């Protein structure tokens, strides 16, 4: 499989880009790989890159987008931050990927057993450890937690039901933030030039479930 060129990228629709990722994850789950020469792709992309998708995922070491979607060099822009949420810099990176570099798809990828979300649920204990920047990060999830937690429900990472609901809602909230905070990406989506979708990676099976 060769690296994408400007010509091949320009023929990919948002729907086809999504299909590429679905097919790639199916290969990954079945322990298969597309036949590609990565060094050849290094040579083919030395003058430029034409990725077809932007994937926002967690920094979790098990969630490398290139691996779980079986993609090669130059195929996807991979944006990673603990808890896969968006901020202005990440939105700027997405705008570059789609409006400048021509990507057709944005995927917000959460995952099961997310440590950042567990930290959000256990914020009271984490804050006692004296890590100022980590505290800032995990407090990002407080509004979502407050919205979904039920009356008298235990706020703890040991509450697997709450953690799962938080994972899904966090992905949905990131998608909402993309549309609300980036007029560029919202316009591209409304014009049908890109899709913005959510997904969840299962760290036990390797499968990506599309939300």
From TrEMBL:
Binding site for Zn(2+): 58, 60, 111, 114
Gene name in the database record: cynT
Record's cofactor remark: Binds 1 zinc ion per subunit.
CDD domains named in the record: beta_CA_cladeC (cd03378)
Spans through the membrane: none
Organism: Chryseobacterium jejuense
UniProt keyword list: Lyase, Metal-binding, Zinc
NCBIfam families to which the protein is assigned, alphabetical: PRK15219.1
Protein name: Carbonic anhydrase
Record GO terms (molecular function): carbonate dehydratase activity; zinc ion binding
Coiled-coil segments on the chain, per record: none
Assigned EC number: 4.2.1.1
Similarity comment: family membership: Belongs to the beta-class carbonic anhydrase family.
Endoplasmic reticulum recorded as keyword: no
Principal EC category: lyase
UniProt-listed Pfam families: Pro_CA (PF00484)
InterPro entries from the UniProt entry: Carbonic_anhydrase, Carbonic_anhydrase_sf
Keyword Calcium: no
Necessary cofactors: Zn(2+)
